[in-house]
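User: If you would, consider this record:
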Amino acid sequence: MVAASALAGYISAPTNFSERNAGTATRRHEKKPRPAESVQIMKGFPSSVQGRILLIDKDNLNTDGIYAGKHTYRDDMTPEQMAAVTFENYDPNFNALYQKGDVVVAGFNFGTGSSREQAATALKFKGIPCVIAGSFSETYKRNAFNNGFVVFECPELVTHLRAALTDRAATTVSSEITIDYAKSVLTVDGKSFRFPPLSPAAQELIVVGGAEKLVASRLRAKT
């Protein structure tokens, strides 16, 4: 309207309208080269992680797909029970495929939707060391670190796996991955991919078990 008014010399509306197909927006990061960077690893934080990849082949997977809403307000569920129902709304076969220590790799905009913290804590309780995705909902990312769970983005890895795995299911077991947190490099299929380094603040949240425990420890230190 502003552009149309400026051209006409008085307040007016546009006269031409272009049609656009409705669709779901998927936030994707631009592919930018990352310089090599060494990171000092805090005591108690793993310098590296190794495990199988479980590829969750879906973009815009919401928190209800990760941890179903029917469980969200059940305060009587133990960590083991929470872990047992992960991804049941997305892929009922996930828990049959899962082995402790598997690294979850997901698509773009992972964890969109509601802000339920259980979508992060249930994966932590399950023993998943981290989730790597093409991109995350910012709310999910904050919830994860605030609850002491590692997540980080590596869109190049997601693109590689989707190209390499021609026979993909909702959840696909893939190669072993090695994550070097000190060098901010992960390796799979003989290829290396860089990811954003985990800051000292992020590492500290993981080591102490989340933001609530971090605040409590600092308050105790002052007394």
The two ends are 60 Å apart (CA to CA). Residues 1-12, 17-25 have pLDDT under 50 and may be disordered. The chain is about 35% helix and 15% strand. The longest strand covers residues 171-180.
